[in-house]
Write the structure tokens for this entry.
Amino acid sequence: MNRFLLRILRFALPAAVAAVGAEWGLRSIPHQLAYKARYMEEHAPQIEVLSLGLSHAFYGLDFHASKFRGFNLAYHGQPLDRDLELWEKYADRLTSLRAVTVPLSCWSIHHRLRKEGEQWRVPFYTINYELPVPWYAFKERCIIAYPAQAFRYLKHALASEDSLAEGNIPQDEFGSYMARLDNRLPDWDQRAAEDVAKNHSRFKPEDMTHNREVLRHIAADCAERGIRVVLYTPPAWHTYYEHLSEEIVSLTREIGTSLAREFPNVRYVDLLKDRRFTADDFFNASHLNYDRGGRKLIRILDDEIAEDPLPAK
Amino acid sequence: MLFNSFEFALFLPAVFLLYWFVFNRNLRVQNLFVVGASYLFYGWWDWRFLLLIAFTSLCSYASGLIIGHYRQQGKRRWARAVNAGNILLNLAILGLFKYYDFFVASFAELFGITDYDSLLLRIILPVGISFYTFQALSYSIDVYREKLPPTRDIVAFFAFISFFPQLVAGPIERATNLLPQFLRPRTFDTAQAVDGLRQALWGFFKKIVVADNCAILANSIFENFENLSGGALIIGAVAFSFQIYGDFSGYSDIAIGISRLFGFSLMRNFHYPYFSRDIAEFWRRWHISLTTWFRDYIYIPLGGSRGSKGMVFRNTLIIFLVSGFWHGANWTFVAWGAYHALLFLPLILSGRNRRYTGEIAAGRILPSAKDACRMAGTFSLAVVGWIIFRAETIGDAWLYIRRIFSPAILNRVALGSSCESPGIHAAIGVVILLAVEWFQRAREHGLQLTGPAHIRRRSVRYAIYYLLILGIYIMHAQQQTFIYFQF
């Protein structure tokens, strides 16, 4: 028996050392979420506008053009339930906060972090924001649990590519991804549009119900703290929104308007087909670019935040 | 608890160490520990159904004692009545949990009754109920047939029914094989344990790389088959064929391998069925524990193949229909059984069902052209069967098959980006699976390293293990439940 256990140990040890080494190596690559977490730790009391959400907010907001001191806590594929976790982590420290902005897109209203194909993002949050997960939740703690993504992450880090993939990609000091118009792919309007819109139109009703509750939770907490919540359906190019199902578009609107009716601190703006946004404002069919569209959007949101001030805290 | 889960990765070493180091001094205590560990393993899914396993075990245990008592007193009729009672009770439980709603719905639809919702029970199907029920039945029937004496050791009997490696998806063990192993002390055998680990590793590869990647491909194709080309539908059917094989034979390999760690020897469940040269050979190699169960407890008591051709026809048809129905409460499973009966009947009626009993291409590296054609033909027939098995309804299966053989076969194969990576991984996995199993076809399992001396060298062995583990790590897909859990 002892011989058997020794053989197991001798076999497993190199594999275990390799795994630990790989995880340590991957964690030592600087990550954008680490920057965001550090910024929040250091500057939370000075932030006036906090942007939550996924890529629609991460790409398309330039806080340099804002009247307020804002910070973009949004990130690629960041769903509403993760927004809530981050909100709960930092809410008490956001003493100057006037408003929270949340994109209500046809994707975000039914997107979930732990759903198939998206779980690989979880360890990056756990590690960088030091979010509590059970000790045995290996897949929520370790980057190496997702080999394909780990390899891609490493590849981008080694090549220092300015890539859209998760990882070592540029963001400004206010946490926004700098998706510049110059970097846009030549076939941007066809490439993303139809497939993405169709994918965004497929949803499970239970995910939608869950996310509505998450939004209600954030809205209610903000109401108690005297903070405005601006929900906005981000602008998109016609090649994208023409392929969205009518059902998903109307459900997205319905969630926004019903929350605005229910909570006096919530405002909802639907910018999906807003004519103020032209082709040069987009990075691709469903995302604004940083340098033009992002500036336009932040001014529109600023107006919403500035209107009808809420009673003092 | 799933074999391919983190909980199991903690559970197994803990149980292994406690089993051999703490509870090994007393056989009864060690068996009691097996029962406890097995109930924890099962209860991890839903503890309420532990009562059902305990009840099934208790009934069969008591039946065995009573049957043995009557047998001793020469009261054969009473013994038969108790055996029949136990069989009926077990089948009633199985029927209630697995088939009740199906029968109500089928009956209502047959007679055009629409308002039958209130009659449905909508009970969750207890995982592995068909497996442990059949295992329990084999005990009381074998005691009645005097193939083994009734056991008085209730702990050993409970351990036999609930033994965690094979509790939820087999192999369906016979009391004559497994129960005596619980009644005698086990000694640790390093060679057995090491080979058990190899078999489990091969099982994990089949499950995680082959089955889970094929599942993504097959699911996406079967769910959208009306809009896909014939070529895509063929890919879907072949993917499901490898999914179900990788899934179920992978589970069996893991179960047998883990059992060997604890000093138990389980029966073989798969013998490289996709290398069969006809359907009769396929059925001698696929889910052997179930096929032989039906043979011994239904087919032979019905008369087997001894009577007239009409009798043989009837018995064969019954066995295949029951086998189909065992898989689940859906007419597709019955149709799958009927389809295989249709393929098997000409062979058995013409006395050609045992043409291929030896090793395929014995002593050769590659099969002859004839054997290769036979294997490809048998595989194709099995694939058509899997379409019926996997489809939601018989109508869907028919449409699926019809669409393959329609002009749609010429359309471009477009499966969408979500299938790209699983498709590549599945293809690599299937090629490795077929290559390894072909070269290992004379051995018990794909990773039994008993070949030439250079294969047995530590450096070569370790390289193979590390490559497989790396393959599992790189090519693993979204975790899927084992298909046979639902049966």
